[in-house]
Design goal:
Elements (H helix, E strand, L loop, with lengths): L6 H22 L6 H13 L4 E5 L2 H11 L7 E5 L5 H7 L4 E5 L10 H7 L4 E7 L8 H11 L2 E5 L7 E2 L2 E2 L6 E5 L13 E5 L2 H11 L20 H11 L2 H19 L14 E2 L5 E4 L3 H10 L29 H5 L3 E4 L7 H15 L3
Parallel strand pairs: 2-3, 2-4, 4-5, 5-8
Antiparallel strand pairs: 1-9, 6-7, 6-10, 8-9, 11-12
């Protein structure tokens, strides 16, 4: 079986390091707010080329706290791409604002700038730029638009640890960025975990206070915040994995390169585009095919796991029916029935990728 995700394999390659790091936390009985957190915030900020990092409980919290820290007028419109996980939209509405969807580029799947521009109104105050599947958004054009329209750019980096735009790591290119360390991410904890990045000292301080009950020092609460602390056990795991993520990312890119090369002559498969200015870190390798569900079953019959990200575009979810955008002429509203994620990750060898390609070619009758 070629697994879609194999965290047990990953653990086996770093077992001694992880076990020692977790034992150290347990031996010291320092579970909240210890050295592991400080080390993670320092090293992850360096890794992502950011000035400040605030570790939080999960990626959705990171988005909500980032939005709150921007102190936007209540009920502001925040534009979100139509193809993403629900947390990208959920964070907007749960923060007291109005979500508005725009389309995604049909080739690289990130936010479509023309559709975004059309969605901007006088009430628009921010944009959530989702670096989807590991491909970064065109941050140069987004930041130019932000200056032109006086908008805040929130980077949703849940799938893009280490991704780059013109050689610069994402996360703090916009005003503030949110990361998830959910176990299946390129850099994943052994439970929920997240982080906020920014180059703005005031936003960093506000975010840290929101995440810790509205305080910097114990019992001195400046305002009402929330409890969104990352524990030291998760930080210890992430500190170990951070040392390996570059090698794991290069393996993902090598597998993606193989897929792109070997499948380019199969006309029934729409391959993802990697822009020349982007370092795509391939959290997911997403193709589009007309008979997606049948192909998925065929792969399963041949002992190859695959995934679907995402089977229902956000505007078409019951949660967002009230917006009336499910009938919009978005590419995202059309291709959600075609997207299929092939296995990719540090557990996939080029031989594994070769078998995936062979089965796909057999299915389509390609040589």
């Amino acid at each position: 079986m070629i697994k879609f995700l194999d965290l047990k394999f990953q653990y086996s390659t770093i077992k001694e390091e992880v076990d020692a790091a977790m034992k150290n936390v347990i031996d010291n009985s320092a579970f909240i707010g210890g050295e592991e957190i400080k080390n993670l915030e320092r090293d992850f900020a360096i890794f992502q080329n950011a000035e400040y990092c605030i570790a939080v409980a999960n990626g959705t919290d990171a988005l909500e706290i980032a939005i709150e820290a921007l102190d936007l007028p209540l009920g502001s419109e925040i534009i979100v791409p139509a193809n993403s996980f629900i947390s990208s939209g959920e964070a907007v509405t749960r923060s007291g604002h109005q979500v508005v969807f725009c389309d995604c580029d049909p080739e690289n799947y990130t936010i479509d700038l023309e559709s975004l521009r059309k969605a901007i109104t006088d009430k628009t105050k921010a944009v959530i730029a989702v670096h989807l599947y590991g491909h970064p958004c065109n941050m140069d054009e987004l930041m130019a638009l932000a200056i032109e329209k006086d908008l805040k750019i929130i980077e949703d980096c849940a799938q893009a640890h280490g991704a780059e735009v013109h050689g610069k790591r994402i996360g703090a290119i916009g005003h503030i960025g949110a990361f998830s360390f959910y176990p299946g991410k390129n850099l994943g904890a052994y439970g929920d975990a997240g982080a906020i990045l920014t180059n703005d000292a005031a936003l960093a301080k506000k975010s840290r206070m929101i995440a810790n009950h509205g305080r910097i020092e114990k019992y001195n609460h400046i305002f009402e915040g929330r409890n969104s602390r990352l524990d030291n056990l998760q930080a210890a795991v992430l500190n170990v994995k951070l040392k390996h993520i570059e090698n794991w990312t290069e393996q993902r890119i090598a597998v993606a390169d193989y897929y792109l090369k070997e499948l380019k002559e199969v006309p029934q498969i729409q391959l993802p585009k990697r822009e020349s200015w982007a370092r795509q870190v391939y959290h997911l390798f997403v193709i589009r095919v007309a008979d997606r569900d049948h192909l998925k079953n065929y792969l399963k019959e041949n002992d190859i796991e695959s995934g679907i990200h995402y089977p229902i575009a956000l505007p078409k979810l019951q949660a967002y029916k009230y917006l009336g955008q499910d009938e919009d002429e978005f590419y995202a509203n059309k291709y959600d029935s075609q997207v299929l994620s092939l296995p990719i990750g540090e557990h996939i060898t080029l031989n594994d990728a070769g078998r995936v390609v062979s089965v796909l070619k057999d299915y389509f009758g390609a040589k």
